[in-house]
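Figure 3 (text version): structure tokens given as input.
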């Protein structure tokens, strides 16, 4: 009989992968890519929630740095140099089983992680799910642990005063993997799932797996008024750290002296108690007690590459019945094969977590067997038809012109760099008199050509130069230069450049993040009919960025963008499910009025 925990291990709802890539400066960097399974409920909501939390942290914080989130591919990418603690615990260090086997090194680790946790609490964020697989540390040049390099990752179930959770988190308090959660966390989880079950008409159920299929289908759309998990604070994180470090201390620790052997286990137990039961009154008190330990100077040198150790996911997810992604399905990211000339991460780095993304993570239909016989017959018909057409028409038809939004109209504003179009084919009798075709320019040549035209004041060329700087085409990637050229073109009224410039202000790429300036440029481009700007303007209204939150206005701009943007159509469908009928009718009226007032704008 398969237990719930075994089922979770066999079918993980989350996959984590470490990437080693080159950043825009040409320097090597390390990233972590998290991917939710195709049937993960409300995947878009959880990814955007984590992206919002990550963007609250300034660059100097001991946390992973947000890179991109791709709702369509259900992935989140963050900068996270170093190795997970779960990897380091499986890495030999000389004659020792792991680099923290000596009590002095274990205490250094506890100090460093507690200091990092105190830093996020100081800015109002509670992690809520600290584990060895989301604590990262780097190595020094001589392959020793750098205790000042601690990075906290995986803020999926974190919350802050600015970004509170609106759904019951997928942490199963009854799972054996959830023992690191404090009693307050477990009570909060049970309360949240009980409230959700009550909303679905299924009282007295306190876990996801106990809900009916009908109740599970409503998860993407239902929001809880006041999730109890938002009430947990620093003590929940300290409890988790005490739990994990206690288990690490059971791995045959070599104590530096008798004081360590007596005081360290007592301190770890104290971290797991409430103040009334003898626990710490605040996190600073725990750090003060850690500072009283006398530590030796030497640290062990690692004898194996930690990258060879497994990156384990120890999250206590409930049994979601989620199948792992197919082995042939490509993982998106910076090293993924480009689509439409751009990587998946560049295609949709969406830092805006919005309510409209809550229903995006839909279950894929089971694949059907491919009808090979029918395909063969159809192919034969096509071949014979093409041969007949070529024989009866000496002038081939013109190739369809690419649409302006054929690559993407998403907030990432991915666009391909225009290349030279092929010449029209001519009859064979004139082939001898046709001059040889020009040699196509490489990316560097196209950049130099576009830059020369841009320097004469050509707005379209300036936009192209901005794109090439933005995506590193023919020149090193440089967001600051991209903003400079976008601005030159935008000041001449180029709608495409205005939309791109607004995006740079929205995300803080190459310029200080400024929602007011983003709204200004996105609105200008949207009024000219640019679908990308209309999409982003809808997101700003939906999320209340520099404008009051207004679902009706968001609907209007999604509606206008949906004429040429499939992503806008998907988000419009998700938004409709959250609106009242009267509001939808009003939004439709406004969208129709806008089209009548702007007949020249397509």
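Below: residues designed for each position.
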């Amino acid at each position: 009989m398969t237990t719930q925990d075994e089922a979770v291990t066999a079918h993980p709802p989350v996959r984590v992968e470490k990437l080693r890539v080159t950043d825009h400066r040409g320097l090597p960097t390390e990233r972590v890519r998290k991917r939710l399974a195709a049937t993960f409920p409300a995947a878009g909501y959880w990814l955007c929630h984590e992206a919002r939390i990550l963007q609250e942290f300034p660059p100097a914080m001991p946390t992973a740095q947000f890179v991109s989130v791709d709702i369509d591919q259900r992935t989140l990418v963050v900068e996270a140099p170093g190795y997970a603690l779960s990897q380091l615990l499986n890495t030999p260090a000389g004659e020792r089983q792991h680099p923290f086997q000596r009590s002095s090194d274990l205490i250094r680790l506890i100090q460093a992680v507690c200091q990092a946790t105190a830093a996020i609490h100081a800015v109002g964020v509670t992690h809520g799910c600290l584990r060895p697989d989301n604590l990262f540390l780097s190595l020094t040049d001589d392959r020793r642990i750098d205790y000042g390099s601690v990075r906290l990752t995986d803020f999926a179930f974190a919350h802050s005063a600015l970004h509170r959770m609106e759904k019951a988190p997928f942490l199963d308090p009854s799972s054996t993997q959830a023992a690191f959660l404090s009693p307050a966390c477990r009570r909060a989880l049970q309360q949240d799932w009980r409230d959700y079950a009550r909303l679905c008409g299924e009282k007295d159920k306190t876990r996801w797996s106990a809900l009916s299929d009908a109740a599970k289908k409503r998860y993407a759309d239902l929001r809880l008024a006041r999730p109890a998990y938002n009430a947990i604070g620093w003590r929940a994180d300290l409890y988790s750290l005490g739990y994990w470090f206690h288990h690490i201390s059971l791995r045959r620790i070599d104590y530096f002296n008798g004081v360590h052997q007596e005081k360290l286990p007592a301190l770890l137990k104290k971290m797991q108690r409430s103040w009334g039961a003898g626990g710490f009154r605040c996190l600073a008190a725990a750090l003060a007690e850690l500072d009283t330990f006398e530590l030796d100077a030497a640290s062990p040198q690692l004898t194996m590459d930690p990258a060879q150790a497994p990156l384990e996911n120890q999250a206590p997810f409930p049994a979601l019945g989620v199948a792992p992604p197919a082995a042939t399905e490509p993982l998106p990211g910076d090293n993924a094969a480009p689509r439409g000339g751009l990587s998946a991460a560049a295609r949709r780095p969406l830092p805006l977590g919005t309510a409209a993304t809550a229903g995006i993570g839909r279950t894929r239909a089971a694949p059907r067997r491919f009808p090979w016989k029918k395909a063969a017959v159809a192919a034969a018909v096509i071949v014979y038809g093409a041969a007949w057409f070529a024989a009866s028409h000496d002038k081939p038809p013109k190739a369809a012109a690419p649409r302006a939004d054929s690559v993407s109209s998403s907030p990432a504003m991915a666009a391909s760099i225009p290349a030279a179009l092929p010449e029209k084919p001519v009859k064979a009798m004139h082939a001898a008199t046709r001059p040889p075709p020009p040699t196509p320019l490489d990316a560097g040549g196209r950049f130099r050509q576009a830059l020369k035209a841009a320097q004469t004041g050509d707005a379209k060329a300036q936009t192209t130069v901005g794109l090439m700087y933005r995506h590193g085409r023919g020149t090193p990637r440089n967001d600051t230069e991209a903003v400079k050229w976008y601005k030159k073109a935008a000041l001449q009224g180029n709608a495409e450049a205005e939309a791109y410039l607004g995006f740079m202000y929205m995300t803080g790429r190459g310029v200080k993040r400024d929602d007011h300036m983003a709204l200004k440029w996105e609105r200008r481009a949207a009024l000219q009919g640019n679908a990308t700007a209309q999409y982003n303007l809808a997101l700003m209204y939906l999320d209340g960025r520099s404008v009051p939150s207004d679902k009706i206005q968001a609907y209007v701009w999604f509606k206008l963008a949906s004429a040429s943007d499939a992503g806008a159509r998907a988000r419009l469908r998700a938004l409709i499910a959250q609106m009242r009928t009267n509001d939808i009718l009003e939004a439709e009226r406004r969208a129709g009025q806008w089209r009548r007032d702007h007949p020249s704008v397509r």
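The longest strand covers residues 14-22.
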